[in-house]
Write a structure and sequence with these properties.
mainly alpha, MetI-like fold, globular, 15 helices
């Protein structure tokens, strides 16, 4: 507080604190408290709200535990989101290392610009572009058939299409944190390891990855939470057998009209994301301060 006051003065510093407090209370704390309240109450007619039937219980959460289809979709969303996170890391880590340690400034600028420009378009439109690309008579099937790899078109929609769409959709959330971490690594450390005869995989395992662990943890947290909470990619690129947990939540709110059960499902997803954040920080041995940087 003293540093903030010394830099901006008491008036402006107080305004910043008020705005931050309003943001936390009004846009973070209040909606989540309302979601918890809805999740613990039954779905009642307006006339019964506040009456003897309007009591707190765990019935909505117990419904998820006793519904095998929804439970299976939830578990599938968990491991599929983890798979999206791993695939995104595998794609982004070599690129981040090249941008931070090997590429010239002009080449790095061009690559970053090429990656960022598509994200000026709405996420729905980007996903629709993947929908066209993966279509039965789309460019991908036409290209593979012209090469002789396929004899007839394939249906790419389903888990594979959702995975590809999500990796593309969240690539920047993994790339930039890793890039920022690796960029601060002195090239002399890598050169010294090479001069001492260290293999490339050992350099990355012993030097680069430990140095970039805060960025890797940040990218993994962001990617997993975005993948677990995604709705557009599974809805457009998924097949009937590749439903996502967010689609179940959407159905409870907007098709089933049961906001209480939908809030309970959303609460479970929120707890999952919080657990992933804590576990990731513990595994990488970083703090929230390191992630915030």
């Amino acid at each position: 507080m003293s540093a903030l006051t010394g830099r901006f003065g008491p008036g402006l510093a107080g305004l910043f604190l008020v705005l931050v407090g309003f943001w936390l209370a009004g846009l973070v704390l209040a909606p989540n408290l309302m979601m918890i309240d809805f999740a613990l109450r039954p779905n009642l007619l307006p006339a019964d709200v506040g009456g003897p039937l309007d009591t707190y219980s765990l019935d909505n959460l117990a419904y998820l535990a006793g519904e095998p289809v929804h439970r299976e979709i939830f578990l599938k969303t968990v491991w599929a989101s983890a798979l999206v996170t791993i695939a995104t890391f595998v794609v982004c880590y070599p690129l981040a290392f090249w941008l931070a340690q090997t590429a010239s400034p002009s080449a790095a600028s061009l690559v970053v610009l090429a990656l960022v420009i598509p994200f000026w378009i709405n996420e729905v439109l980007r996903t629709l572009a993947w929908y066209i690309l993966l279509a039965f008579r789309g460019p991908l099937n036409a290209f593979l058939m012209n090469l002789g790899i396929l004899d007839e078109p394939m249906r790419w929609y389903g888990d594979g299409g959702v995975l590809a769409g999500m990796v593309y959709a969240y690539i920047l959330f993994m790339l930039f944190p890793i890039y920022n971490s690796i960029e601060s690594l002195e090239k002399a450390q890598i050169e010294a390891a090479r001069d001492l005869g260290a293999a490339t995989w050992r350099i990355h395992l012993r030097i680069v990855i430990p140095h970039a662990k805060a960025g890797i943890a940040t990218g993994c947290v962001f990617t997993f939470m975005l993948a677990a909470g995604s709705y557009v990619a599974p809805a457009l690129l998924g097949a009937p057998g590749s439903r996502w947990f967010t689609q179940i939540i959407y159905n409870w709110f907007f098709e089933g009209g049961d906001w209480n059960r939908g809030a309970a499902y959303a609460l479970v997803l929120l707890v999952l994301c919080l657990a992933v954040v804590l576990i990731t920080l513990r595994v990488f041995r970083v703090s929230l301060t390191d992630v915030a940087k």
